[in-house]
Amino acid sequence: MKEHRHEIYGLMGEFLTPEQILHAASKARQAGYKHISAYTPFPVDGLAHAIGFPRTGVPFLTLIGGLGGGLTGFGLQYWCSVITYPLNIGGRPLNSWPAFIPVTFELTILGASIFAVIGMLALNKLPQPYHPVFNVARFAHASSDRFFLCIESRDAKFHLMETAKFLQSVQAHHVHEVSNAE
Amino acid sequence: MSTTPPPGDLPEIRRLDPVLEPGHTYASVTDKIAAVVLTQPPTTGWIVGFAMSFIVVMVLFISLSWLIIKGVGIWGINIPIGWGFAIVNFVWWIGIGHAGTLISAILFLLNQKWRTSINRFAEAMTLFAVACAGIFPLIHTGRPWMAYYMMPYPSTMGIWPQFRSPLIWDVFAVSTYGTVSLLFWFVGLLPDLATLRDRAKNRTQQVIYGMLSMGWRGSAHHWHRYQSAYLLLAGLATPLVLSVHTVVSFDFAVAIVPGWHTTIFPPYFVAGAIYSGFAMVLTLAIPLRKAYGLEDFITMRHLDNMAKVMLATGLIVAYGYFIEFFMAFYSNNKFDVFLAQQRLHGPYSHFYYALILCNILTPQLLWFEKMRRNVAVLFVMSLVVNTGMWLERFVIVVISLTRDFMPSAWGRYSPTFWDYSTFIGTIGLFVMLIFLFVRVLPAIAIAEMRELVHEQSDEEK
User: Fold this and answer.
1) Of B198, B215, B233, Cβ closest to residue A113
2) What pLDDT score was predicted for residue B14?
3) Is B26 in contact with B452 (CB distance < 8 Å)?
């Protein structure tokens, strides 16, 4: 069924409850499918794990952002107060670091937060206005009361009839063909 | 939830009100909350409320224009009372914002389920309160168009900000707070914007919500990173919110003025901020749930819990007032003792007594469950506490500045028409933004409510 690969993005099963989609996702993994994605109206515990996605890079990026923000904050104040614009006020030390803590702290938080949000969006490849799954009319329910499991056509094991049968066998309420045409 | 009665030999377990009334499905919570934004036409009440707040915003614009034309001389400030209403209002507004972050971040980390239906508009309240707060220090500089001098930038003059000054710390604290609150709010909104995009019927709504939702499709990969980012943001916002009012209190505590130079200020300011913030959440939640029939989502449990938080933080604030007096007399510092006496007997003592009445005495009614469950009482109480917290900042700013060390430096302060009009104008701005918000964005986090429905159905099994 190679000829389908360009026209069809994949097959999507529609489920009614989080338990059903969790069950279907782990069955799909067991059946040997690798390119699976799941779409749910709220985060379902264990679903990312069930489709084989154990770790995210967001915490690491947040750490980088926080460290970067903090170092920038302290470095900025040190550079201003000690190097480029030193003010001798009664012989007090120029590197008065306790007074630099609030700004260092605030910039740590700022850097970490910006990296957490931008990092989350970037890793999720958002903003992404178009995606083939939006071609399925029923997919509008993915943001309210339905759960969708999509097996992508680039999966080596993908076969239009077989995969559709598989989705039906795991109690999919409906099976939709996801077209690739824009 | 099981309906089996407790065994007869045990004392009857009092059941808490649910955080979500039973009988809701994923679709019903989605429909009900999204309908407010997408399909319901604005009610007469909304139009009247919006129009009135819009008029007050015009008062703000006129006041600000006149200020820029004439300068800060139109206010009642003088030497020695250089701060006046501008700083009183700044501290008051910033404090109000704190409850939003507390609800969305700290209660999230503590896994408090009841935060779910109030976090979205509490965060909106934070943003709008920070916006109102930000106006005041800016215009109080006298030349707001020079405000960029406070930012460190390589100027041709070769000068840099004084990083040892709490006023510069404030610039960083408040701008970070505003930015992080906005990010947190937007991340929370993302799945709901996708819901609105998918349910929007007309082209304009589809395009606007489509762009704002950035193509969110609720994939498990998305949710996984999303939850990670949300948790991290909550963890970051928690120390941030505590730091912001701490830094605001440094504006006072780092100075040597009697009544300001105390170590109790940071915790006492943070508690006061949360106190006034919860009062404002109640002020907004009570009419909102009534107007849009959201009593199923914002239940008596929420109101009761918020009243308890108000009572607890109110007691911390009361302890702060007590310690201020205790330290003044215990230290035997004659300036501090004199200031304490000025609060009780000075020219502004009536403000101090009103403050005690609003912030300490009246909220004691909240010990009684009957009072916490009376919506009208809670609403009035929330207004009383907000007034009290404004008076607190007035007492701190004005009494200390009018009575510092030398009698020759003493003064009097009386606000002018423009002081009042600017203050009332920001209240109008705040209310107008809230009115707009409930019409264009979901006032309750829909995705989180669906999660709550799921958890509730799990409990039933």
Assistant:
1) B233
2) 53
3) no
What is the layout of strands, in order, in the sheet containing A147-152? A36-39, A147-152, A8-15, A174-179
Task: Select from B231, B67, B176, B208 the least CA-distant residue to A116.
Answer: B231
Which residue range is the domain that position B294 belongs to? 26-455
| CATH assignment at residue B424 | 1.20.1630.10
Mean pLDDT, chain A, rounded, equals: 89
Number of folded domains that form chain B: 1
Q: Which residue of A has its CA nearest to B453?
A: A42
In a domain, B204, yes or no: yes
d(CA A147, CA A19) in angstroms, rounded, equals 10
Q: For residue B94, tell me if it sits in a domain.
A: yes
- For residue B179, tell me if it sits in a domain: yes
Cβ–Cβ under 8 Å, residues B113 and B141: no
Q: For A63-67, B116-120, B216-220, which range has the lowest pLDDT when averaged over its residues?
A: B116-120
Tokens 């319901």 map to which residue? B40
Of all helices (H) and strands (E), which one includes residue A131? none
Q: What is the DSSP string of B348-407?
A: THHHHHHHHIIIIIGGGGGGSHHHHT-HHHHHHHHHHHHHHHHHHHHIIIIIHHHS-S-G
Average pLDDT over residues B136-161: 91
Domain assignments of chain A as residue spans, ordered by start = 69-123
- pLDDT, average across residues B264-271: 93
Cβ–Cβ gap B183/A117 under 8 Å? yes
Q: What's the rounded mean pLDDT across residues B172-197? A: 94
Please work out, in degrees rounded to the nearest 5, the angle formed at the alpha carbon of residue B240 by the alpha carbons of B90 and B122. Answer: 65
Which residue in the set B27, B168, B224 is minimally distant from A53, CB to CB? B224
- Asked whether B399 and B339 are in contact (CB, 8 A), the reply is yes
- Highest averaged pLDDT of the listed ranges A51-65, A159-173, B177-191, B295-309: B177-191
CB-CB neighbors (< 8 A) of B159 in chain A = 85
Using 50, 70 and 90 to split pLDDT, how confident is the model at B461? low
Q: How far apart are CA A116 and CA B232, in angstroms?
A: 7
Give strand pairing partners of A147.
A15
Residue B293 backbone class (left: φ over 0; alpha: ψ -120 to 50; beta: rest): left
Q: Which residues of A touch B236 (CB under 8 A)?
A: 62, 66, 109, 112-113, 116
3-state secondary structure B413-444: CCCCHHHHHHHHHHHHHHHHHHHHHHHHCCCC
pTM of the entire predicted model: 0.91
Contact between A178 and A135 (Cβ < 8 Å): yes
Is residue B9, in this structure, part of any structural domain at all?
no
The 8-class DSSP code of residue B298 comes to S
As a whole number of angstroms, the distance between CA B135 and CA B223 comes to 37
